[in-house]
């Protein structure tokens, strides 16, 4: 791991690292926030739990770190935050031929691609679960308690990775997630290219399908703004709510009047998400 | 005034506006945060005081609004925040011939230029004091209680505009301000071009000179990181402290161990600045 940058913030540290990813066959960048207690400021350092944050279309490792306003609460609670990039990057990595914002670079959709030319590099699911998590646990003063969150495409990522790995993550939260990608334009475009035409193979990355078949129910918190331009066509939280009711999966969906798809919305409620995860991350300690 | 954008945040509103500036002879953009109480959410609206935030080199109206994490405290306290752009903009506005970051566009230094070709457009001092303040007081549900703050070049701006107008502003604060521009490379370059070679004319925009000659002492709070790359060469808070001691001007300078020149630093202490201003903005109500 190469350390690219470091900033002191709220008594803790924000830093960027890069490292080679076998899953994505390229150098990947991620950012981490370590709260003061993990740095041993003022007393002996303690291992802290980690919240993984997955960002949305067009984002990289920095959007959340610079705009969410999460560090005050994370520093107080003693929670580390890790924010990976949203796709593989580099000269060898193919992009959407039209450089569209919703596919290719910045749009990895947190899955393992099976179709050429995407399958060489676009394996964000394996990267997050099998490289980033163990790498963070090895390299930083953290413990194994992990939660996952994200926004929009990253909310989809948090839901699918969390639902598929309920023994790895204590809890899932999301802002404005793509809840039913097999049923919206963003998801259909990405899944067709990454996974091919057989829509049966898409279901393993669809939150509605995974929730319906979940054997273990870990807590889920979702916040969604009512003035979000993408609400009806792309995000479709009502589809997830319907499945949750049918499956007796208790999840909390807060519809927030007047809020949009921006980081202004995320910053308004990120503290509540941190408190939500904290009760699970510190349970039984 | 044209409304360019609007986002709900912490129950209040962040919005961008543009309007023609007579002082700068161009269209100017600014951003405003209005706390819930100024919008009348839940009860009758109340006029709120305003904190003016001046940003640093290369910034525009959005840096503070997106990265400072100020809205939680501002919403609770009931303080509006106004963040103007850092210079005139537009095709007619001249820039540094080398497009350097420290002069021309994005580097107005909050003064009135006297030298061609800058004097036509670069009149940020008049713009802030005589157009933005009255315009905001006319157009939004605010009262006349105003405070001023900023970072780096904007910290210089807050100090000089506040010190020159102690009856307009209740209080001044700054992060990492340029404290003695006549004595550092950034200031000397800008003042030579904007004001000419006669260094006597520079003193009206130098915080050390103004503090030394201040007839009315309004409260000043400064935060400065010890790991700031610009501390010794450009910012020089010790020069301001020396003048304050000689002049018996009580100001607070917090040297913050390990912090740098970034918004990670600002976000860590912006709440303290808001509380500092609140005690003055709400005094006597």
Q: Total number of β-strand segments of chain A? A: 9
Question: How would you describe the shape of chain A?
Answer: globular
Share of β-strand residues of chain A: 15-25%
First CA to last CA of chain A: what distance? 30 Å
Assigned CATH architecture of chain A: 3-Layer(aba) Sandwich
Which homologous superfamily in CATH is the superfamily of chain A?
Alpha/Beta hydrolase fold, catalytic domain
The unreliable regions of chain A are none
| Rg of chain A computed from alpha carbons, rounded to a whole number of angstroms | 18 Å
Placed side by side, the strands forming the largest sheet of chain A appear as 1-2-3-5-4-6-7-8-9
The largest interface is: A-B, 23 and 23 residues
Number of helices of chain A: 10
CATH topology-level fold name of chain A: Rossmann fold
Oligomer: homodimer
GO molecular function (chains A, B): carboxylic ester hydrolase activity; S-formylglutathione hydrolase activity
Keywords (chains A, B): Hydrolase, Serine esterase
Function (chains A, B): Serine hydrolase involved in the detoxification of formaldehyde.
Active site (chains A, B): 152 (charge relay system), 228 (charge relay system), 261 (charge relay system)
